[in-house]
Every structure is written in C-alpha cells, then in structure tokens.
C-alpha cells in the first residue's frame, strides 16, 4: 500500500493557531504522529511526506527569503519533500501564490501513480476538483481537520477525517510551540 501526507502550510498553520499552537518543531513530529494513526487504521505502508509553502523573492525581503530557505532545508533533511509556491507584493504585504495548485496537481498525479491513501492537511475548498479526480482514479482521500474548522465542502467529499486535535495529542509536548496566553487542552477538555 502506498500513501502520502500532504501539508498545505498556510491552511495547517491557521488550524494550529485556532488550537493555541504556534508551530511544530520539528515538523517531522507531526508527520510521525499522523503516520501512527495511518498505521493503526490502515496497516503498515510506504508513506511520502510532503510540505507545501511559499518563499518570498530575495529582492523583496532578503531576511524572510533566507529564513524560509533555512526552514525548507530543515524539512528536507528530515525526509520531507518540499514544494514551493511564490509570494507577490500586494497591498503593502506579501501574498502566497501557487501553493494550492501544487497540492491539487500532486493529489491528481499521485492518484495516477497508484497511491492508495492521500492525507491532506488543508480545508481549502479549491482542492475539491482535485480530490474528486483522485477518488475517481481509485485513491482514498482523508482530510486532517480541526474540529473547530467548518470546511463543510471538504468534509462532505473526503473518504474520512482525522481530527487535528487527536494528532496534536499524539505529539510530544516538547515539539509543540504554544501561542502566548493559551494552555494545552486535550480533546476531552475541549468537549467538556
């Protein structure tokens, strides 16, 4: 059985922030936690780890450019395949471009390459057509979503949902960077 875990950085970070998590260091801890869920529910299999983010042009923000390059390099050293979109200047800030297209292309291409399971950490409704095509090609698509995330379009379409809260509970606390003024809550505490 072949599987892949695809993380859309902006979407993932937004969901993590809603849970009081600023980040995960190293990100491999997230992939490994999700792999333990995958192995429990679907059995042992070959799994590709993929991460999708953007990098600002060097001439626009040299400091962010080098910070992002260092971050992506650390991911690659951990065996995570990195796919980079780009940033454009817009309204005085930087706007990420191309990342959702990269995720969509990989969902489709991996389904053509006989990936049985595709886990996507994204609530982006723009992925709907790619998810449908991957399913039509025989892949099972499972979303990692926070219970606080509406994502009704994706939830209706995918073959299953793994609650982000359950994955976070599997990650050793030393790998979670907490947001200021928040405390860690287990799923039981959130539902109480």
Automatic annotation (TrEMBL):
<dbReference type="Pfam" id="PF01936">
    <property type="entry name" value="NYN"/>
</dbReference>
<feature type="domain" description="NYN">
    <location>
        <begin position="2"/>
        <end position="158"/>
    </location>
</feature>
<dbReference type="InterPro" id="IPR021139">
    <property type="entry name" value="NYN"/>
</dbReference>
<protein>
    <submittedName>
        <fullName>NYN domain-containing protein</fullName>
    </submittedName>
</protein>
<dbReference type="InterPro" id="IPR047140">
    <property type="entry name" value="LabA"/>
</dbReference>
């Amino acid at each position: 059985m072949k599987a892949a875990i695809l993380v859309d950085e902006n979407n993932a970070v937004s969901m993590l922030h809603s849970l009081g998590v600023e980040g995960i260091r190293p990100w491999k801890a997230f992939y490994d936690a999700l792999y333990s869920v995958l192995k429990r529910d679907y059995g042992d299999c070959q799994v590709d780890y993929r991460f999708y983010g953007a990098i600002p042009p060097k001439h626009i923000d040299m400091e962010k450019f080098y910070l992002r390059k260092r971050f992506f390099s650390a991911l690659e050293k951990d065996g995570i395949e990195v796919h980079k979109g780009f940033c454009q200047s817009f309204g005085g800030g930087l706007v990420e471009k191309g990342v959702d297209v990269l995720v969509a292309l990989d969902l489709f291409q991996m389904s053509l390459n006989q990936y049985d399971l595709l886990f996507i950490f994204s609530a982006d409704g723009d992925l709907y057509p790619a998810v449908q095509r991957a399913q039509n090609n025989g892949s099972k698509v499972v979303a990692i979503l926070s219970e606080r995330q509406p994502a009704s379009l994706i939830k209706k379409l995918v073959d299953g949902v793994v609650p982000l809260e359950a994955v976070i509970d599997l990650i050793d606390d030393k790998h979670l960077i907490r947001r200021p003024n928040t405390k860690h809550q287990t799923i039981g505490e959130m539902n109480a």
